[in-house]
Amino acid sequence: MRIFFTGGSGKAGHHVAPYLASQGHRVTNADLAPLRHADVQDLRVDLTDAGQVYSAMAGTPTGADLDGPRRDAGTASAYDAVVHYAAIPSEFLAPDATTFSTNIVSTYNVLEAATRLGIRKVVFASSETTYGICFAQGERKPLYVPVDEEHPVVPEDSYAMSKVAGEVTARSFQARSGADVYGLRINNVIEPHEYEEEFPAFLADPSLRRRNVFAYIDTRDLGQLTLRALQTDGLGFQVFNVANADTSVAVTTQELVERFYDGVEVRRELGAHETLYSIDKARELLGYSPEHSWRDVLADPRR
Fold this sequence. Notes:
The chain is α/β, with parallel strands linked by helices. It has helices at 13-22, 50-58, 96-116, 158-177, 194-204, 219-231, 253-260, 280-286; strands spanning 2-6, 26-31, 40-44, 81-84, 121-127, 144-145, 180-186, 189-190, 217-218, 237-242, 265-266. Helix 2 packs parallel to helix 3 and helix 3 runs parallel beside helix 4 (158-177).
């Protein structure tokens, strides 16, 4: 595929964009900052500018074979798919109004350009924060566990609000166009080197992870899921939780429920270290099969 990838220079994107390129796809990184990766073409685009987004997506992909055949002017986009990761990636990084407006305007511009240009596959980054737990004022517990995609999304913070609004916008563009538009509710993104740096504290004090529903997503498995979303057609509009198969702490899942979720409905039997952030839907519809775990790097202190 020829993939228009936004935010390829960010924490998640700088792993996922090269991974997609390594699988044989031509990837253009549309971002304000360059990635500077040998296998990914950089294109400086301000995604809050609708004209820039449309022009970039309608143009010939950077790195195209200039000696080969060129499409006729005025035809549909030369890209086969869009992966939209770009955003102000968290609360507390910019003023609230800036976070909300930047994220939703950029998402609108990307979706409008993609659907008007006839691109039939858009995969966009949503967030675990949509469930209203991560950045709540005070502690908020889920209504039930494991938290699946049917759980209500009622956030209090500007970042999560922008992600919920982005999902609503994406659903509307999908209804208009009939394209496949898949949202990824990505959990806390962890790079491989962060296991040794951050996880010892989580293993010593599980409460540090309650805002993330004790879950995480390894960037390598995020790459796998993004690829599977690109390869899976015909699902219309969908949202998927994205996490690894286990929790980010050493205590068992049952102990987590007893200690932190007293009174919360447990909807099914859970494995000994099974994530409380359900990935069943991604497994069933996309064939997602996470391969990585902090346990491959660190010794479990309870063993």
